[in-house]
Amino acid sequence: MHASADAPTADLAAAWQLVDHRSTAGTADPVVLDCARRLAADPGGEHAAEWVYGLLSMTRYLATRADDTTAGQVAEVLRTAAGALDGPPCDHRSHPYESALEQLDFDELQLAGSAPDVVLLGNGTPTEADPAWQEPGTKEEYRCPHAVAVFARIAAEIIAPGSPQGIPEHIPQHHEDCIEDLASVLHGYPRGGVEPAYEISAGAGLPAHPTTGALAGHLALLRAGCWAAASGTIRPRWVLDDMIGTLEDALRELAGATCSHGDGVHPELSGDPDTDAGTGYHLLTPGGRALLQRSYEDGIEDAPPAAWTCRAHLEALARDTLGHLTAARDRFFGERRTAYLDADCLRPDGTWDAARLAGVLRGAAGGEERTEDLGLWAARRFVGGSGTAHERLMLFLTVCHSLDLAYPDPPPSVYRELRPVLESAVAALPETCPHGDAHPGAGAGLPGEAGEHLAHLCAPESFAAPEGAREPDAWACPRNLAPLAEEWLEWCDTWDEAAEDGYGEDDD
Hints:
Elements: H1 9-17, H2 25-41, H3 48-57, H4 59-62, H5 68-85, H6 96-102, H7 118-121, H8 139-143, H9 145-159, H10 173-187, H11 196-200, H12 212-231, H13 237-254, H14 273-282, H15 286-297, H16 305-308, H17 311-333, H18 342-345, H19 354-363, H20 369-383, H21 389-405, H22 412-423, H23 450-458, H24 472-476, H25 478-500
């Protein structure tokens, strides 16, 4: 529907209501540009409020479907109108844009619904005498030039974000609460009642038709939570799946994005939990971006909103974050490949090489994916059933050593495959043995580095005995191995119980 130049306001408003995220350019652009032309013709005039609210109501299209030319043209008209409408301070105690900004959630397009019914606004009936008027403010408040100017700036910021001058720094109160909750999780000390998994994945709630501002906020939040999810500190599978799915959706929205910015212009999160949580949530709303702009001007933020809302930057950010999270999901829940360790632990022909394995054990570092893979490699070779008693002892101790070194706790893709090796050592224990209290466990309780003790046990001719070294029969004693296996099996049960509560598994 395209209203003519002399169409009454009711016909224009009816046409505006048909323009949203489902509209095509062929049907929407004539309506949008007609409204913009009316506003541009008299940006500070008697009917400016009607045209501003008309364009605000059509931001669902302008911010998600319109091409850059149309969106940029309309945003410029709105900013010009805001400047023309600005004047002396009014005496209103409040304005409707305040509650509109404060009641936002994760989708700033809710503000399109803040546009009042312009037909009722202009019908001449006082607010108190008009039963059809259902807006949260009076007609006078909606017609206030200051309010109309702010709504014009808000609409322009939604359509073409990054320059939020003149927008009040009103932040939804629940966003401030969310910032504190997420920051507490990122600090490693969640506030009482906070569910870390939900806070880390907050950015996964991307609207179905996101604005650029929504994309910026959600991607910054996903980036802020990426380390906790990718490191395994917090790793329910649904967290990774939701975050990855959102990043894939965002990349479809951002496909082909380009920019003219040079190297080093695009921002990174600071690494400070409070700052990063604030950046993510504040990018979601016009009032939040206004706060970020002032913080940047005051030297608190490293980058202005305009840098964060560059779509080419957001595409690169989404792609990089997706890579980290996809690799983490493969690590935690995918098929782990360990054949690459053959070259480090065995002879070229695939036969046992005690000195090579000893060197790997001596240099094994905690908290690395390679350490988990080493335990899996040993478990798979152990389950294969070949090898001398000494070789199988070393494979068993390698499994236990990898668990000792694991940080965070090993994922299900690792510890569940280690169980058969641990169960093989659970047996009836002799009442006595010649070693007394000299059982070494897997070496973690001995003086110095456990890897030094294991290396000497594995290849004594190649690695000297460290301080406190134990004899081979003390390592192989059932009274050493069985308690060690039982302790780790108890931990496996604990991790499985956590998985049943949603940590490490799908909810279904």
